[in-house]
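Board notes, transcribed. Complex of a protein with uracil.
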Amino acid sequence: MAKPLTLEKILFSQGFGTRRYCSDLVYADLVEVNGVLADDPEIKMDPEGLVLRVEGMDWVYHEKAYIAFNKPANYECSHKTKHHPSVYSLLPRPLIERAVQCVGRLDQDTTGLLLLSDDGQFIHRMTTPKKNIGKVYEITAAEPITQKQIDHLLNGVVLDDDPSPCFAKACVLMDERRLAMTIVEGRYHQVKRMLAAVGNHVAALHRSSIGNYGMPADLKEGQWRWIDPHEMALLAQPIE
Ligand code: URA
């Protein structure tokens, strides 16, 4: 059993506003707990597994937020965007309030699996190359992809800003111009620059999986969902 917390603290932890505001939500009859209207913000309860309804929105308590998101094209992974709307504009307000951050960014024109979390240690674990967690990118190339280019990607390419080469950990040719490439780092525009370095060009880019966690088939573009504990274990699987 988790440590009992007051309802006000629980609402605050989930991103429903300041503690004062959360308390007022209860007094305004805008909070249900497991289907029952709450009337006391100071009441203590075990937060694990609580199903809240706040201002009409259903919300399952999560101590930390681990989110899978299907990023559409033409959204930027930043709060201060330059040319396109932010991916954060597609998330509900409580997730923004509790400051979830992208676990590594995707370019505005890249689509696919994006993780978000408010757990700094998790973000670090998922992004550090030391953990050897693979990210699979499905590349549509401008030119047919040759075996020589694949060999070059696997043997390592040097990008202009860093003398240490970056490697594709795996390459699977899907058709003449489509390659699924696994990398463990997340350098700036890494996939596009790697393709350019071997003499090709990325025409479209989609991230399909991270670790052993693939994009859920029913998660439509622009939608998000909680990642459950079983899926968390899949995410943390390093490449052998
Ligand atoms: N590599 C890129 O070049 N772009 C992305 O969005 C992700 C990886």
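The first helix runs from residue 7 to 14. The pocket of uracil is lined by residues 106-107, 110, 189-192, 205 (CB under 6 Å).
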